[in-house]
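Quarterly update, task 2.4: MU-OXO-diiron-bound model.
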Amino acid sequence: MNTIVRKQMAIHPEVMDLLNNQIEMEMTASASYLAMASWCDQRELLNSKAFFYKQAEEEREHAMKIFTFINDNGGAAISPDVKNVNNDFESLRAIYEMGLEQEISVTKSIFKIFKAARKEDDFITEVFLQWFITEQSEEEDTFRSIIDIFDLMEGMPLKMVDERLPKA
Ligand code: FEO
């Protein structure tokens, strides 16, 4: 590309590597939620299936936000290789608990990139990541409140529990 037209890279190179890892993490989360949606779909758990299909889409959107951010700022976004997706779950509650664990890992990873951006005076990435920090806090809250519903409805039939859960 013409070097005059091509925007100079605004992202610090080490931060860009972390952002590329984050794309992989978001796409892995998307694939994982898709597997969870399938498990729920096969068991006619209507609210949970809708919830996880939507989560799968949202995680892909997160990955794409980072992907376009890197390329729009003169960097090189890498299409990730998503492997080893677990499709085997022991219960609906276990699925939501795995979802929460996944979200906590993503939050930690976002914080790590945020700190690296701050250390390297990479202001553009720092500002960009603020949206993700808010989003992660909301996602963790959603999973925690769903797990609370399981605690309240312990011993109830699975479909009845599912009917009390948010659709998406
Ligand atoms: Fe994009 Fe919920 O991690």
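Highlight for this quarter: The chain has a mean pLDDT of 94.
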